[in-house]
Amino acid sequence: MRPMPALLMALCALMLASLTVGAAHVDLRDIFSDPQAMLVLLESRVPRTVAVALTGAALSVAGVLIQALVRNRFVGPDTAGTAEGAALGLLAITILLPSSPLWLRMIAASLSAMATTWLFLTVIRRLPVREVMLIPIAGLVLSGVLGSVVTFIGWQTDLMQYVGVWLMSGEFSGVIAGRYELLWVAAVAAGLAWFAADRFAILGLGDQVATGLGLSTASVMRLGLAVVSVVTAMVVTTVGMIPFVGLVVPNLVARIMGDNLRASLPVVALSGAVLVMACDLIGRLVIYPYEVPAGMILGIFGALLFLWLLHRRPAHG
């Protein structure tokens, strides 16, 4: 079976299961005759299910883009300082303008995430080209430094609860109607990447090759930075950072489909949605009726997948 139909079937099955799992019993056969079940479905279950799918798909696409920008498979939005940059922007706007509207917080988080990601790109350009593993190490160091700054400022300003939600939460229990719509912005930003997929694929070949083929590397770099930053900022603002999705999903899909981004990006998006949806369901069932955050389940499962990717030889070459 081709990847797309199989992934669509899996996603539909998981979304249907997500609508029926929870502390409140909801029978989909009785939703039109039971006002209480309809209320739970529309106000909680449907927004949560949509938010999980959008988060997984958008983060996976963002992972593909940042790997193309840095030309390294071991980098993701959560290991390049992007998430910490978004949290730093949210923290700054919360301190300086505590009554600021949501759109201003979104802009602040996106701009800060873009700045820290650009800083990461600037740092790795000074590293030896042949030392491939130095790039993810530099990303982890930068993420750690930025995370320490965010934690220190949050501690000093008594905003540690917000910092915990932005960087260490990764859970969807608080998602209800009216509190997840920012993720549609992330989905639109990720969707824009498909229209420039060929340019990102050429950029991944290197600056000299891309320039020789007539590609404006600076403009493609700016587009990629904008998409990665907006996606990460929206996810951090809404549900907190979800680890490993943007790292392992692009690698798994690339092993099957290669580097044809125009063909693989829809598969990457669906795979990310399926992975996050499955982990969210596991977290809701493992200690039912209580929940384990999806970010924790993904942290365990994603770490195992990443170790497998490190030790598993590529299928080709």
Helices and strands in order:
Blueprint: H1 3-20, H2 35-70, H3 82-96, H4 102-124, H5 134-156, H6 160-168, H7 182-195, H8 197-203, H9 207-212, H10 217-238, H11 245-257, H12 261-285, H13 294-311
Helix pairs in contact: 1-2, 1-12, 2-7, 2-10, 2-11, 2-12, 3-4, 3-5, 3-6, 3-10, 4-10, 5-6, 7-10, 11-12, 11-13, 12-13
Task: Give an overview in words.
The chain has 317 residues and is mostly helical. The protein has a single domain, classed as ABC transporter involved in vitamin B12 uptake, BtuC (Orthogonal Bundle), CATH 1.10.3470.10. Helix content is 72%, strand content 0%. It is built from 13 helices and no strands. Helix 4 crosses helix 10. The longest helix is centred in the first third of the chain and has 36 residues. It is globular, with a radius of gyration of 20 Å. The chain starts with a helix and ends in a 6-residue tail after the last helix. 44% of the residues are buried.
